[in-house]
Amino acid sequence: MGSLGFTPSLIVVGISLVIGLVMVVVFRYTSDQKAIRVAKDHLKAHLLALRLFQDQIPVVLRSYGRILLATGRYLRLAFMPLLFVIVPLTFLIVQLDRYLGLTPLEAGHPFLVSARVADATTLNEASLQLPDGLVTTAPAVHVPAENEIVWRVVASREGDYEVNVQASAQTFSKRVVVGSGLPRLSPVRLRGRFWERLFYSAEAALPKNSLIEAISVQYPARDIAFAGFEWNWIWLFFVLSLAAGFLFKSILGIEI
After folding, report:
1. 41, 61, 112, 174: which has the highest count of C-beta atoms within 10 A?
2. How far, in Å, CA of 178 to CA of 107, rounded?
3. Residues with Cβ within 8 Å of residue 179, at least 6 apart in sequence
């Protein structure tokens, strides 16, 4: 994604505009536009009655009740179209986060590689094997309470590496990316845990019978500069896609 020269902020803006348009178009063709318009008109009428007759307690109480009913009716009409959007949108966010959520490691800057083992007895047997270009800068740290062992590593040059964690006779690899741009990053490789892998890992699962439960690399989080602020890309995406959705809603005359 980085090879085209687009900055992360431009990518998020472009994706947000497209998704904002797609969302309102999907909403248009999966919702009852006439019923939504009527529900909104009823809600406005009840709000107006509340303002006009605010000194008449019985009218005010009836208006509050009708406002609640009208709001419930509107939410029911709007909920079904959201189901058509939320599943593919969630999948899209998960995929984009692998490019936009983290930054590659920098050459010359230490980072952590950790492995979680199945039981504490395996900790003393675990070791890290590094390719040329990566070296450890401190002894391994054992965390028995977490069944975890941590190594501090530094890269002498940019590259796409594979590190290996060995436990007993088993050896498992983990991808490590050192450089720049927007490569696809996976902070962890996991054993089992299908749903966790779906959201957090972009690598094949570790074998079910492996002594290693997880191998992790500490990638830095990416902040995107936009409008004078530093944003997590997902927050920026939601803000811009909602703004784009309301813009296209007005242009296309769609009731939301």
Report:
1. 174
2. 6
3. 104, 105, 107, 158, 159, 160
Contact 7/24 with Cβ under 8 angstroms? no
User: CA triplet 106, 112, 113: central angle to 5 degrees?
Assistant: 115
Domain ranges of the chain: 8-101+226-252, 111-217
Question: How would DSSP label each residue in 152-200?
Answer: EEEESS-EEEEEEEEETTEEEEEEEEESSS-----SEEEBS-HHHHHHH
Q: State the fold for domain 111-217.
A: Immunoglobulin-like (2.60.40)
State how far the Cα of 96 lies from the Cα of 11, in Å rounded to an integer. 10
> Bridge partners of 149?
115, 142
CA 220 to chain centre: 15
Can you tell me the distance from the alpha carbon of 104 to that of 222, in angstroms, rounded to the nearest whole number? 9
3-state secondary structure of 123: helix
Nearest-angstrom CA–CA distance, 133 and 139: 18
Residues 6+ apart with CB under 8 A from 190: 196, 197, 200, 201, 205, 206, 213, 214
pTM of the model: 0.80
